[in-house]
Specification:
The N and C termini lie far apart (about 40 Å). The chain folds into two domains: about 100 residues, Orthogonal Bundle (Arc Repressor Mutant, subunit A); about 50 residues, no CATH class. With about 160 residues, it is mainly α. The chain contains seven helices and two strands. A hairpin with a 5-residue loop joins strand 1 and strand 2. It is elongated, with a radius of gyration of 18 Å. It has a two-stranded antiparallel sheet with strand order 1-2. Helix 4 packs across helix 5.
Length: about 160
C-alpha cells in the first residue's frame, strides 16, 4: 500500500492550516513547506475547499484558512475523498474488473477487511490529533514561512 501524492499533500495542507489557525497562509507557503509544485497544491486546496474544510480568499491579503474546527476533520474522511478514484485492487473496481479469478478468489474478502480496518483506524483520529501540542511540526512550518501571518477576510 502506498499513499498517493495528492492525499499526502492534502494532509500536509490541512496540518499547515491547522497549525497557523486562526491566521491564514498562502498556497505558495504550503507549496514551499511541502517542497511541492504550486499548481499541484492549488488543485489540492481547491478540492479541500469544495469539501468544506478550507476557506480561501483571492487577491492581496488573501489566502487560506480552515473553514471548520480541526476537531471536526476526520483523517479517514480526507483519505476517502482523495483515494476514492483509485481502487486498492482491480477486483475492488466493479466497473473495470477483468480479473479471471473474480468469484472464486478469497483475497478480495481479505483486502476488503484490511481496508476496513485501515479506514477505521484513520476515522478515530482528527486533524486536531495530528497538530495539538506538536511543537516540532509547528517549527517545521514556521521555518518555511517567510511571509507575515495573513488574516483571511470572512466571506
Amino acid at each position: 500500500m502506498r499513499l498517493t501524492t495528492r492525499t499526502n499533500l492534502a494532509m500536509r495542507t490541512l496540518m499547515h492550516a491547522a497549525v497557523r489557525h486562526p491566521a491564514g497562509l498562502r498556497t505558495a507557503d504550503v507549496a514551499r513547506a511541502c517542497k511541492a509544485s504550486f499548481h499541484h497544491v492549488a488543485q489540492i486546496v481547491n478540492l479541500l475547499e469544495n469539501a468544506g474544510w478550507l476557506r480561501t480568499a483571492r487577491g492581496r491579503g488573501g489566502g487560506l484558512v480552515l473553514a471548520v474546527p480541526a476537531e471536526s476533520i476526520r483523517v479517514g474522511a480526507v483519505f476517502r475523498l482523495l483515494e476514492a478514484e483509485m481502487p486498492f485492487a482491480e477486483c475492488l473496481d466493479s466497473a473495470r474488473n477483468s480479473c479471471p479469478l473474480d468469484g472464486a478468489c478469497r483475497l478480495k474478502g481479505l483486502l476488503c477487511e484490511a481496508l476496513g480496518a485501515f479506514y477505521a483506524t484513520l476515522d478515530r483520529h482528527t486533524l486536531a490529533d495530528l497538530v495539538a501540542g506538536n511543537t516540532a511540526l509547528a517549527a517545521v512550518f514556521e521555518a518555511s514561512d517567510d511571509a507575515d501571518v495573513l488574516a483571511v477576510p470572512a466571506r
